[in-house]
């Protein structure tokens, strides 16, 4: 009985200080397949369902400013009562990370002004990636500034760079087993390997190269992160005519074009399904207004 | 187009992920070779079927003469392989082995932050020097931001400067790595690094720098020579971009980036601009009118046509605003993906046509 009470109090304290730790969603896929659009839509959906959500983009340039019409930087910008957007950049995260260990601001400044450290930060393997993932997982690891969100949706890099991102802590945890760097790397890997805390979405479109590249990535994630990503099959054409019904019109350019899209779609779907992976289909939205696209896709995500 | 190809010794195709850099590099190669230029295409991560068509799928690294196209050679640049070879060429065997075993080295060469960019530019330099080719076309890895690609050698070089290498690589200073540095500020910084990373990491870092100390002169030379080459009149850049508002905005930023670096943007290729059927459509046969499925097909057709028309309007408006100061070539979305030599040939023909009517 005392044990039960303890657990209860512990849960209560965690809730009260909003230290529950957000669920992390990482969106990746080949370049141009719709990672950013899918990430925005997922964030939109979660926020609409009443979850406090932070949508995060990585890197030096903002894409979401085109969608939300606001400058996006490290300080979260409010989009609505439940949705905020922010942009995290490797060097700034590294600064924050170092600040966490070295409490003295002056030393931190010296560190980043130092020529040798500058060179190291720009080119040394894995440092920036480690800092970024460190920040992404900082909620559940209870380090750094609080991230009081229920859900963290990250528009993560495309396939090649995404591998580098997770391989930094996973590789470092193996390479440098001792010391703070090893400890950090291990705790980061633990979070991203745990499907209850981190969900990975590999976005593809029904074309050969994106699917092949996406499935290769999915395999690496299964092998190295020991969890199974979801496949988001984006830009799926919901055709009122089947390939069979199109056949009589095959002589016409447009019908041939449609027929080819449908063939490719079926091929892509089959290829994914033979791997036994879960597929979320998102429709091709015929609008160029970004906000409309995001809302339409969010509604579709709602349904699943 | 041929004037563009003839006026340069090096053309670099840049752009964000998946826009068609590799396909366009290869078809520009076909076009140049057709026009009698001895051409080398350096590809990065080509799709398997494209690699097969070029005949390079089994020859990672080396130049291969493309059998179906006289005058054209192709190669795959494999960052890991090139970097290892570079190390082997620059160091004696024992030191190279020590470096290969270093875990930070393994991270450096398999991590995209810089090594892929560095090796492809180093490879470009080497091929350029060989004097075998009239023109070399360099495909590039996907970058979020084009300038990252160009700065890679410089950044890598910064890491290998005396001051940096000297900091870490000091053979006799096994004891008291921090104590060795007397300057108070420096001591604080090294202390901070150690407290953040731990002594095992520092040990690995020192081992790494101990080995690479011998590489620094070569790396310095390569970064300087690459910089000279890409800044010369002989080298032009081609930006490949998608048909998409945000992509076009990115292009503008890229144009600015190049200008700031004093590099020469020569053309923008907007790839997969329209499906082929939207241009010069055929009418529907009378006999289909009675078929109920045909009515569905027709309304679908209207939906698609409107969609592409609407995008065209947005594109034109944007294009006028952007003030792109170089030729913009629009390529259609071909029926088949561009993987066989005949696909490349078709793309080359269209590239040439569009350039003429630009
Ligand atoms: N389901 C969809 N229906 C219609 N258009 C879409 C859909 N998903 C994405 N798009 C469009 O496709 C283009 C590419 O999408 P997006 O920028 O999200 O891709 P990305 O994977 O983030 O690209 P990058 O690799 O360059 O970051 C955009 O114009 C976007 O509006
Ligand atoms: N104009 C086009 N019409 C139809 N398909 C195309 C066209 N251009 C490229 N493709 C196809 O699009 C896919 C991606 O092209 P490609 O590999 O050249 O892009 P990339 O920019 O090199 O990609 P990455 O950034 O991943 O290296 C390939 O399957 C290619 O065949
Ligand atoms: Mg994106
Ligand atoms: Mg490519």
Summarize the structure in words:
Chain A is of the alpha/beta class and 304 residues long. Chain A has helices at 2-16, 35-48, 64-68, 90-101, 105-113, 115-123, 127-136, 138-141, 159-175, 179-193, 208-224, 243-246, 253-274, 290-303; strands at residues 23-29, 53-58, 77-78, 83-88, 151-155, 198-204, 230-236, 279-283. Chain B has 358 residues and is α/β, with parallel strands linked by helices. Chain B has 2 domains: 2-92 and 113-159 and 222-356, 3-Layer(aba) Sandwich (Rossmann fold); 162-212, no CATH class. An 8-stranded mixed beta sheet of chain B has the order 3-4-2-5-1-6-7-8, sandwiched between helices. Chain B is elongated, with a radius of gyration of 25 Å. Bound molecules: adenosine-5'-triphosphate (2 copies) and magnesium ion (2 copies). One magnesium ion (MG) binds next to α2 of chain B.
CATH architecture of chain A: 3-Layer(aba) Sandwich
Please report the two chains with the greatest interface, counting residues with C-beta closer than 8 angstroms to the partner's C-beta.
A-B, 71 and 73 residues
The CATH architecture of the largest domain in chain B is: 3-Layer(aba) Sandwich
Beta-strand fraction estimate of chain A: 5-15%
The domain tally of chain A reads 1
- From the N-terminal CA to the C-terminal CA of chain B, the straight-line distance is 10 Å
Biggest pleated-sheet summary of chain A: 8 strands, mixed
Structure classification of chain A: alpha/beta
Largest sheet of chain B: 8 strands, mixed
The average pLDDT score of chain A comes to 87
User: Would you state the CATH class of chain A?
Assistant: Alpha Beta
Q: Estimate percent helicity of chain B.
A: 55-70%
The name of the CATH superfamily of chain A reads P-loop containing nucleotide triphosphate hydrolases
């Amino acid at each position: 009985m005392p044990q039960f009470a303890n657990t209860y109090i512990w849960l209560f304290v965690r809730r009260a200080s909003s230290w529950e730790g957000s669920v992390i969603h990482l969106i990746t896929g080949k370049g141009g397949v719709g990672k950013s659009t899918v990430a925005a839509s997922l964030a939109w959906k979660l926020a609409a369902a009443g979850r406090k959500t932070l949508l995060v983009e990585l890197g030096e340039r903002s894409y979401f400013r085109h969608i939300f019409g606001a400058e996006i930087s490290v300080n979260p910008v409010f989009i609505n009562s439940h949705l905020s957007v922010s942009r995290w950049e490797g060097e700034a995260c590294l600064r924050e990370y170092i600040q966490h260990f070295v409490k003295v601001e002056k030393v931190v400044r010296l560190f980043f002004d130092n020529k040798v450290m500058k060179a190291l930060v720009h080119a040394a393997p894995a440092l920036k990636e480690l800092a970024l993932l460190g920040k992404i997982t900082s909620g559940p690891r209870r380090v750094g500034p609080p991230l009081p969100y229920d859900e963290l949706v990250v528009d993560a890099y495309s396939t090649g760079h995404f591998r580098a991102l997770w391989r930094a802590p996973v590789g470092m945890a193996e390479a440098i087993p001792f010391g703070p760097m090893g400890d950090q790397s291990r705790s980061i890997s633990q979070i991203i390997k745990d499907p209850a805390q981190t969900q990975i979405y590999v976005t593809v479109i029904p074309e050969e190269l994106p699917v092949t590249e996406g499935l290769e990535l999915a395999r690496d994630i299964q092998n190295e992160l020991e969890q199974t990503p979801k496949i988001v099959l984006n830009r799926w054409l919901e055709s009122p005519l089947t390939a069979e019904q199109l056949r009589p019109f095959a002589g016409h350019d447009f019908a041939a074009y449609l027929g080819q899209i449908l063939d490719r779609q079926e091929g892509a779907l089959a290829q994914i399904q033979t791997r036994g992976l879960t597929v979320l289909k998102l429709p091709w939205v015929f609008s160029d207004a970004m906000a409309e696209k995001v809302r339409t896709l969010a509604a579709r995500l709602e349904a699943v | 187009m041929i004037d563009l190809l003839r006026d340069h010794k090096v053309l670099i195709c840049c752009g964000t992920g998946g826009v068609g850099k590799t396909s366009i590099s290869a078809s520009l190669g076909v076009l140049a070779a057709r026009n009698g230029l001895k051409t080398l295409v350096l590809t990065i991560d080509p799709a398997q079927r494209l690699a097969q068509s070029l005949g390079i799928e089994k020859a990672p690294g080396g130049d291969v003469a493309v059998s179906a196209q006289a005058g054209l050679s192709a190669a795959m640049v494999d960052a890991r392989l090139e970097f290892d070879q570079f190390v082997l060429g620059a160091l004696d065997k024992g030191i190279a082995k020590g470096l290969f075993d270093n875990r930070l080295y393994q991270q450096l060469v398999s991590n995209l932050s810089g090594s892929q960019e560095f090796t492809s530019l180093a490879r470009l330099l080497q091929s350029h020097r060989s004097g075998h080719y009239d023109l070399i076309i360099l495909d590039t890895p996907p970058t979020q931001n084009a300038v990252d690609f160009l700065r890679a050698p410089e950044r890598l070089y910064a890491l290998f400067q005396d001051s940096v290498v000297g900091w870490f690589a000091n053979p006799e200073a096994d004891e008291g790595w921090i104590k060795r540095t007397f300057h108070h500020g420096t001591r604080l910084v090294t202390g901070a690094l150690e407290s953040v990373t731990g002594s095992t990491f520092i040990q690995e870092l020192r081992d790494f720098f101990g080995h690479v100390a011998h590489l620094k002169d070569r790396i310095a030379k390569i970064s300087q020579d690459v910089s000279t080459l890409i800044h010369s009149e002989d080298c032009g850049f081609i930006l490949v971009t998608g048909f998409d508002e945000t992509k076009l905005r990115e292009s503008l930023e890229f144009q600015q980036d190049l200008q700031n670096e004093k590099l020469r943007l020569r053309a923008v290729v907007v790839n997969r601009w329209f499906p082929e059927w939207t241009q010069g459509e055929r009418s529907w046969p009378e006999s289909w009118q009675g078929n109920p499925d045909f009515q569905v097909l027709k309304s679908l057709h209207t939906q698609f046509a409107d969609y592409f028309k609407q995008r065209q309007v947005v594109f034109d408006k944007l294009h006028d605003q952007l003030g792109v100061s170089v030729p913009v070539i629009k390529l259609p979305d071909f029926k088949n993906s561009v993987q066989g030599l005949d696909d490349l040939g078709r793309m080359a023909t269209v590239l040439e046509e569009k350039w003429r009517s630009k």
